[in-house]
Amino acid sequence: MSTQLTLSVLAVASEVYPLVKTGGLADVVGALPGALASEGIAVRTLLPGYPAVLKALDGAAEVFAFPSLYDGPARLLAARVAGLDLLVLEAPHLYQRPGNPYVDPSGHDWPDNAWRFAALARVGAEVACGRTGAPAADLVHAHDWQTGLLPAYLRYEGGPPSVMTIHNLAFQGQFSADVFPTLGLPDAAWSIDGVEYYGGVGMLKAGIALADAVTTVSPSYAAEIRTPAGGMGLDGLLRARGARLFGILNGIDTGVWNPGTDPHLPEHYTVVRPAAKTAAKAALQARLGLAVDPGALLFGVISRLTWQKGLDLVLTALPTLLGAGAQLALLGTGEHALQAGFAAAAKVHPRQIGCLFGYSEEVAHLIQGGADALLIPSRFEPCGLTQLCALRYGTLPVVARAGGLADTVIDCNEMAVAAGDGTGVMFAPTTQEMLETALLTTFRLWRQPALWQKLRRNAMRTDVSWKRPVARYAALFREVVAGRAA
Ligand code: ADP
Ligand code: GLC
User: Fold this and answer.
1) Which tens digits make up the pLDDT trace of 263-317?
2) Would the CB of 304 count as within 6 Å of ligand 1?
3) Rounded to whole angstroms, how far apart are CA atoms 416 and 25?
4) Is the CB of 364 under 6 A from ligand 1?
5) Using CA atoms, how far apart are residues 182 and 154, in angstroms rounded to an integer?
6) What domains can be seen in the chain, in order of their start residue?
């Protein structure tokens, strides 16, 4: 336990595991408060009152009422759920909608997304500045574009300092210029140093420009996004932030992801007693209708099915994978064409390809436990969490050399293997040819059982917990607060 003074942090995000999740953002926002507590940092988390969130609240207390927030009444509720200190913005006209938080049932962005998330940022600023009855914050931690206006409100209103974390630069929250007058920002904010972005409002851009410090979720991604190739239009601004942009790796919750206790596995295993991993493999093969064959190299995929994740390359590399006698277990949701492609391949090769299209925590755990290797051929990857889980489960990650994948997996190249190192297979660039080469490399390693077991032990011994990352967040938060006080 730190001997330093407790800092009070208000985290604001649109997703928090286990209440609402579309990707790794939720995992990180859900895990950081518990991890930061051991550094003497107390986190409250503000999130929108989506139906799933309100349903999970039990005995929530009203903290504050807003007579009108973007044309409807809203309330701020406080509750403790799943070990988290939550503040929930209940605003039925903004958040009481079915399905995914960002898109309507036909898959289009909700037309009022600008106000849905401006409202979240506005209320974050009210709380942080102590205007709601909830305690004020020493520092605000804003996550992704949905909270990008928050550093702007705080900056123009003299609020506490803020740290903006970028989980994915591909989603920027860009809106037309006519949104600006509705945001309650001073005229000065309409500038290249404020929220203006290519003639419109850029929410993530605002956060990057106006936060006291900016972080992203791996050192490699922090470097990539400063380049025109990786910066998605924001590289100039990110370069301008200079040394105020930090790359801090994600961790995973090693209590939730633990093959020694995982309730979704038929038997438990550990690094010193790994034998029961074969029971998970047989269960996974049976679950997805694959041939139950311990000798077949079984690749897993757990992913959003989008261009970012490079799974179209897995489709085109399938002949190589199948030709070598391997199997594929895929869990994912996303683009219809990719889903259709994998479904068609599974129909032709049901004993070698098994797919589940949908969201399932249970099958995600079973794949981590039962697969031999996990495929992650991302075109870009800010951090990636599934490779961290795979390491912990002794499922060798086969990854593109991108972002956080490059920072967390040790490629089994000749020198690494000779030195007794290596935790996975890495390839670059992200092309079909290089993916096929990586698949063949994986086969070569698989055919050497003693080596494979050694690599599996290396993987399982990797520290994928929040321990190191959270010390870096804590140090940064304290530095930012001290910097303002100075
Ligand atoms: P991203 O946030 O870009 O989607 P990450 O690797 O950071 O990628 O995080 C993805 C998270 O979502 C992981 O916790 C992973 O296990 C989970 N996940 C992805 N797809 C599914 C699915 N279909 N079912 C269950 N969990 C999923
Ligand atoms: C984003 C990124 C992913 C990262 C996650 C959590 O969704 O795509 O790489 O792990 O956020 O930070």
Assistant:
1) 999 999 999 999 999 999 999 999 999 999 999 999 999 999 999 999 999 999 9
2) yes
3) 32
4) yes
5) 17
6) 7-251+467-485 (3.40.50.2000), 277-460 (3.40.50.2000)
